[in-house]
Write a structure and sequence with these properties.
The radius of gyration is 19 Å and the shape is globular. The chain starts with a helix and ends in a 22-residue tail after the last helix. It contains twelve helices and eight strands. Helices cover 43% and strands 19% of the residues. Helix 3 (58-63) links the parallel strand 2 (43-52) and strand 3 (70-75). It is α/β, with parallel strands linked by helices. The protein has an eight-stranded mixed sheet with strand order 3-2-1-4-7-6-8-5, sandwiched between helices.
């Protein structure tokens, strides 16, 4: 089904959904940046913030940004990110739904324009993934993670010309209304990979747009890094229960030649960071084998919440 606004040459309307759990440190910055986006080729019709049982100042900070198009759902009980996104799916009104994590900040005022433009170029696109980049490091541990992010970014951008689930980042995505109408997230880790797989399963195309960039803060402690890494480590196993195992193996596979080529490049770039990250990665893989593997309620990484000092 092709968007009628595209056929008639009208600006598509965009809804933004933001799940938020204890995000007082950044929610005001994010809303302010979104309301300041240039809207030459789209109309920002609404911003929906779902506070998922927050017990800090998330709601107060969001309410301090006065805007007629911003609505805040203050849910008292925490149900998890997937339930917040499902709630947004039920009420959003735009032609395009943008989902953002509350602990991100757009690179510039053209972020939304870059993220939604592919839908007008190709009506077969159901899902657009934007780029996520880490902020400058504040300690040694974060510097090591920053090094790994750059290396892994080069690896996944080389896989299948950018058409892969690794570039469907949960914190920065846009959905066509047609795809969004077929979505209902189960209570799982890996909801971003689930989005990509549903997109493909239902005959839509995925597009990665690196110009639509947001910044985020990496964990500054090993404890917080472990929380995030454990979720990713469990995701493929959970998705095998929903999608054919063969399809999951194919989508998660990365050619060894790419890993080797990029790995050698970054090893010689900084051997200390490379070896350090290898030790961190190995340790987290071992430790992530324990813990809850199915719940969509995960402990947040507190050291990654403050983006703007």
């Amino acid at each position: 089904m092709i968007n009628k606004n595209i056929i008639l040459g009208k600006k598509p309307t965009v809804s933004i959904g933001i799940p938020a759990y204890n995000e007082e440190a950044n929610i005001k910055n994010l809303l302010t940046a979104l309301l300041g986006q240039k809207q030459d080729d789209f109309e920002l019709s609404e911003i929906i913030v779902v506070s998922d049982g927050s017990f800090d100042g998330t709601v107060k900070e969001a309410q301090s940004v006065h805007s007629e198009i911003t609505s805040i759902i203050n849910r008292q009980e925490r149900k998890g990110k997937t339930e917040s996104q499902n709630e947004i799916l039920k009420i959003f009104k735009g032609d395009i739904l943008v989902l953002l994590d509350a602990d991100t900040i757009p690179k510039n005022s053209l972020f939304l324009s870059c993220l939604v433009k592919p839908f007008s170029v190709n009506p077969k696109i159901g899902l657009v993934g934007g780029k996520v980049s880490s902020l400058p490091s504040e300690n040694l541990f974060e510097k090591i993670l920053n090094f790994s992010v750059a290396m892994k970014g080069e690896i996944v951008e080389s896989v299948n010309f950018g058409d892969n689930l690794y570039l469907c980042h949960g914190c920065n995505r846009a959905f066509s209304r047609n795809l969004a109408s077929q979505l209902n997230w189960p209570k799982i880790y890996g909801e971003d990979a689930y989005s990509y797989l549903i997109c493909k399963e239902n005959g839509f195309e995925f597009y990665y747009e690196p110009e639509a960039e947001v910044f985020y803060r990496l964990p500054q402690t090993f404890k917080d890094h472990l929380k995030q890494s454990s979720r990713f480590a469990h995701s493929s196993g959970i998705l095998k229960k929903i999608f054919p195992e063969k399809a999951i193996k194919k989508e998660y596979a990365i050619p060894k030649t790419i890993i080797l080529k990029k790995g050698i490049k970054h090893f010689f770039k900084n051997p200390f960071f490379f070896v350090s990250y290898f030790l961190i990665y190995t340790t987290t893989r071992i430790l992530s084998k324990t813990g809850n593997k199915t719940s969509a309620l995960w402990e947040i990484s507190t050291s990654s919440k403050s983006l703007i000092k």
